Amino acid sequence: MFSKACEYGIKASTYIALQSLQDKRVSLKEIAEEINSPVAFTAKILHQLAKNNILDSVKGPSGGFQIDKATIKKIKLSNIVYAIDGDSIYLGCGLGLDKCNAKEPCPLHNKFVVIRNKLKQMLEETSLFELTTDLNIGLTYLKR
User: Backbone dihedral region of 23: left (phi > 0), alpha (psi from -120 to 50 degrees) or beta?
Assistant: First the structure.
């Protein structure tokens, strides 16, 4: 459903938020290890997230990545998805066809529109803070 970059972006943002809530800044290498992603690929993803004001990048010996505590509650998963993949997840055909719309629907079009709308609603309603809270109390986990 999400691109690999988007999956890593959500994992990285969640990990950075979790550390930021504990007043910790994390390095690129630490993030890549935690989310099991190649360092160069992780750097590219983090750059996109920083460019879209989802996280902050601090240079220097004590640098790393962080997210402002007040912002963690405001960031929705839809912000992260949009920063990495744009809005294509809400527009594409369920079968991957080029010519699929309400006037010329594919066999899955009407069913897939419902799923897409529910996905969009879930992403717009779920905050990064919610993900970190579930991690903190052990209801979810981040590693494979």
Answer: left
Identify the domain containing residue 8 by its residue range. 4-84+127-136
- So what's the pLDDT on residue 136? 64
pLDDT at 89: 84
- Per-residue confidence (pLDDT) for residue 133, from 0 to 100: 84
> How crowded is residue 94: how many other Cβ atoms within 10 Å of its Cβ?
17
Spatial CA neighbour of 1 closest among 83, 90, 80 = 90
Residue 32 belongs to some domain of the structure: yes
- Residue where the block lists tokens 């920083």: 50
Q: How far apart are CA 112 and CA 57, in angstroms?
A: 38
Q: How many domains does the chain have?
A: 1
Identify whether the C-beta of residue 111 lies closer than 8 Å to the C-beta of residue 94: yes
**Of 78, 26, 33, 35, the residue nearest 55 (C-alpha):** 26
Residue 117 lies in a domain: no
CATH number at residue 35: 1.10.10.10
pLDDT per position as a tens digit, 67-107: 999 999 999 999 999 999 998 888 888 888 988 988 999 99
Tokens representing 109 are: 């079009």
